[in-house]
Amino acid sequence: MARFLLTGGGTGGHFFPALAVAEALRKRGHEVFYLGAEGGLEATLLPQSGLPHALIPAGKLDRSAFRPGEFWKLREGLRRARRVLEEVGPRAILSTGGYAGFPGGWVGAGMGIPLLLHEQNAKLGLAARALALRARGLALSLPTPLPPFLEKKARVVGYPVREVRYPQGEAKRRLGFPEDKPLLLVLGGSQGSLELNEKLPPLLKPLGLPVLHQVGPRWAERYQALEEEEHYRVQGFVDVPLAMSAADLLIARAGAGTLAEAAFHRLPALLFPLDPKLDGGAQRANALAYARSGGMALGEFGRLGAQVMEMLEGKERYQKALSALSPEGAAGRLADWLEAL
Q: Residues marked as binding?
């Protein structure tokens, strides 16, 4: 069996897809080594995974300002990545991008090790644009506009998600919501969204529909008062597969992982992407891609109530559109590609 090196992280959007592929490769009997970033989410979760791993510095280069400290971290990360690669000797590398996935991918490709790059968003990020030049293959979560020299090495494989579904009635009962009423699920990302936390409750409460609102762990106490009305439930963090199985409509930011999970669950969504100044336009590109598919729509605070009712009435139409974007089997397709490399 072959030995593979997986790298990427910093945030869950880059780490969890790689973890799903690692599990798929291990089930096939392959050896997997994970290269992550010091201080990234993976630094906390890798010790729990049982994967052999190493953590290195990974400078996060800013879009708007040069920060010397991050440059020196990157330089040290490249040096230590080479040492890890020489020791591990992988047959191929998967980088899921982000600043944590850059050093190992860049150095490994320079050493002649086949590199497969996975891009989660509908727009290539900074690290992905640099790595794509050296990658043997470019795996996309969604159809993404690319220059011709990258199109030749790219194909859509989807975004690996945790493929767990529950019957809707069972999921609603487990969460304590009535089965005979539509359930609205609000997600602002794993850390919550202050903007959505502030703006959505006054707009959703008058609808009289049950709401499960993930406000983020740091905001949970602050927004507990929203539960004065029985149908409005606030949690710092939710079990996403269970919550999406129960929900009839999602109201959310437009992170790649959230939208892929919603597509897997055939869950229509109203999207409020981050301001492009904050993420380079990645979430807006994701939102537009799913909206063009017919499975989701861009939300408008000014007419949110009407949008919610319209989408609930046309739920089956949105679900049919989402079935074409479901990422089911994505981890296996990435494992196949790595084996081929």
A: 11-13, 121, 162, 190, 283
